[in-house]
Amino acid sequence: DTGVSQDPRHKITKRGQNVTFRCDPISEHNRLYWYRQTLGQGPEFLTYFQNEAQLEKSRLLSDRFSAERPKGSFSTLEIQRTEQGDSAMYLCASFGMEGAQYFGPGTRLLVL
Amino acid sequence: TQLLEQSPQFLSIQEGENLTVYCNSSSVFSSLQWYRQEPGEGPVLLVTVVTGGEVKKLKRLTFQFGDARKDSSLHITAAQPGDTGLYLCAGARGGSNYKLTFGKGTLLTVNP
Questions:
Q1: What phi-psi label fits residue B83: left (phi over 0), alpha (psi between -120 and 50 degrees) or beta?
Q2: Strand pairing partners for B1?
């Protein structure tokens, strides 16, 4: 399978704990995007990378959130000191031709 | 601010019926994409449109991009239960970041 993969698919954590998610994009794509989707809403942009450089961050990305793409391949999104409001689906997308973005299956986070 | 408005928000029809869903904005987009999303999964790309007035067909699905590149429609002919899902439109605005702005989606249910 050469699509976008994300791990884990589901994560349940207690408030105050740290969590980390991983995204593996399509191998030949040099851009990678992170989005967050809450119930009843469309995905909202968080941040994106071109190769290993993080080029833009949304105001939604508080200082508890950090994203990396150290070798320009896979990316990680870490949330420190999780809050209940962080509960959402975290989506990763890989950028293709004409602005088309291909999404992974997502990581569903539940903060208790 | 919701830049993309989708209508209707919910649609329940019988198998074999035709339907159209709409995606409207006051902003111009350089490209617009339609996705279908099933519960617990990431959005799956259906089509990307980039030229004002462009029409693309994908089997029973017809996508149209408005002349002014501010709106789009998705028409499904002879809907089938397998078409059930959340249909999301997403626009990329001018510039080089290609980040997507999503509508809230249209939740389609096709009853057998």
A1: alpha
A2: none
Q: What angle do CA A42, B7, B102 make, to 5 degrees?
A: 25
- Report the gap between the CA of B15 and the closest CA in chain A (Å): 25
The SS3 of residue B13 is strand
Structure confidence by residue, pLDDT tens digits, A9-60: 999 999 999 999 999 999 888 899 999 999 999 999 999 999 999 999 999 8
The nearest alpha carbon in chain B to A97 belongs to B48
The tokens of A74 are what? 């896979």
- Of B68, B54, B32, give the one whose Cα is nearest residue A98: B32
Q: How many residues does the structure list for chain B?
A: 112
For CA atoms B83, A106, B49, B92, the dihedral sign is: positive
Contacts of B90 in chain A (CB under 8 A): 42-43, 101
Residue A107 sits at the vertex; the CA angle it makes with A106 and A111, to the nearest 5 degrees, is 145
B44 vs B35: CA distance, rounded Å: 5
CA A12/CA B74 separation, integer angstroms: 36
